[in-house]
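Box 3.1 A note on notation
Throughout this textbook, protein chains are presented in two layers. The first layer is the amino acid sequence; the second is a token string describing backbone geometry. Keep the layers aligned when reading.
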Amino acid sequence: MAEIEYKGIKLGGSKLLLLVPLLGTIGSGLFFGFEFYKDYMNMREQIASYSAPDLSGIRQELAVQNETVDAVRKEMASVRLRVGEIQQLARDLRDDQRSDSAKIYKSIGGVDRRSRQADADTRSAMRQAERTLRSITSSASERFDAKISSVDEKLDALEATLNKRLQRALDNPLLKGK
């Protein structure tokens, strides 16, 4: 292995591998320390030579902006007032619409109830008319059947009478010789 000897100190390969990063770390630490010190000194000079900027122009701009903000506030106050009036008008319209809707629904309910009652009355009248018509039809049918039966009986009686007369005429001995 490689060895380095310096003033009687012998360093082998594994010790060299530890020594190189250690020296790099110490060197970079010193470099950044000096850079930090240099930046600190530059900043110290800048702070010592600092003079406050002239803010009079900014103050004038702020005054103009304050006037503008005041004008906008006044305008917003009038807009808020107008919005409040419009909101009240919208509430009134909504309330009127609700009351009108309630009246309409109440009227529709009344019409619906009357319609259902009229429907029920019509159905009842139709049922009554059907019963009356059946009764009249049944009564007329019974009378018609009775009259037909009476006519049938009279025709049967007439037929029987005619048959008897015809038989008597046929049985008449006076008529047999001719």
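The CA atoms of residues 64 and 141 lie 111 Å apart. Helices lie at 13-48, 56-171.
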